[in-house]
Amino acid sequence: MKKVLIASTALVAATVFSAGAASASEKIKLNLGGFSKWWVVGQWQDSKFESNNNGAGTQGGYNNVDVKGDNEVYFGGSTTLDNGLKVGIDIQLEAGGHTDQTTDTIDESYVYLEGGFGKFIVGAKNNGTYLLHVTAPDAAGNWNEGGILTGGYSVAKPTNVSTVTPGTTATGTALGNSQGNGGNTTAIVTDNDSEGITYVAPTFYGLTVGASYKPNTTEDNRGATQINGTTAVSASDVIGAGALYANTFGGVGVKVSAGWATYSVEGTVSTASQVNEYATGAQLSYAGFTLGGSYRQVNGQRLQASLDTDLGANAWDVGLQYASGPYAVSVAYFKSKAEGQASIVGQDEIEFYQLSGKYNLGAGVDVLASVGHAKYEDETKLPQNENKGWAVMTGLSLQF
């Protein structure tokens, strides 16, 4: 399959560049863009996670009040060659706040080729199924893996509770185990922003399809990637495809998406996982109301010595939003179940409720607010492995 993808990509590229003279009238000039979003957050959770225990709790202490930021600066530009081919670049610089809790300075960086054949994206970018996926609406843009509550940046996720995204190791780690809350989404984000090739076809009567290939999920890595050996490594040979249908019928807006991805996770010789993920979503909108929801299923097979176990996880969400003029309000719900420790029967569960609002003050300036509840349950049902709590947050979002 990988050889077929590489061969077909080379063939398309050769066809594109032989279509005519490819001289550009001028070099690409980069333009600035981006956003700045800051939140003031109050959170109340189980006492073992509160800061007033002086770190004496099992999980340590967390602040009850905090300031959270998410800022990015975009450098992008494009040029159109004499043969009509559009060539562009996009670089996204993390600019403070770091709500993704990483040291990744450049979030995404890629080039693209666009024409009547569609669009090819080469570089660090989310996969095609993610780009076309539809989820529950949220008025404040504070949902899924990037949300303050759903992203795990307020009410803390216990380390024993697994998210729906599979972990990047296979040395006995159960399918669904993730280092953070990046898996709290119905979109297929296992490969994150790792380097790869994505193709998005032209929209045809409201239907858009896309596909991606990622050699591995080790982001920003120029070295030769180990795919099997004595230590666990990232998922490899990630192949995915997705589709989005969007249209309007008599004032009713319709969006429907579906996606699939497959990959392997390899570590020691005796440990391996083959994983398939499926995602679907839909939205209906009319007279300012938008009703939407989505579902994600993860199926995997873990082989470790004499252990041969089917493992899996799933997540779903649903939400309703109303927008009128500068105002928007929404309510949404999310729930996931994932296998935790292989030796224990049961599943870890994560649950969110959230009410959000937005008021537009002017071009690119929004006041945001969200109130939500989170609940984390471990399959062991031990109190020290579980947490629940509330988060109240208000923020200002600037887009430029």
Per DSSP E runs of 2 or more residues, the count of β-strands stands at 16
Task: Name the CATH architecture.
Answer: Beta Barrel
Helix content: under 10%
Would you identify the CATH H-level superfamily? Porin
CATH topology value:
Porin
Number of domains: 1
Strand percentage lies at over 45%
N-to-C span: 42 Å
Order of helices and strands: HEEEEEHEEEEEEEEEEE
Number of helices: 2
Weakly predicted, low-confidence segments: 1-22, 53-58, 168-180, 225-233
Overall mean confidence score, pLDDT? 82
Largest sheet: 16 strands, antiparallel, barrel
Instruction: Identify the overall geometry.
Output: globular
If strands are numbered along the chain, what order do they take across the biggest sheet? 1-2-3-4-5-6-7-8-9-10-11-12-13-14-15-16
**CATH class identity:** Mainly Beta
Q: How many whole angstroms does the radius of gyration measure? A: 22 Å
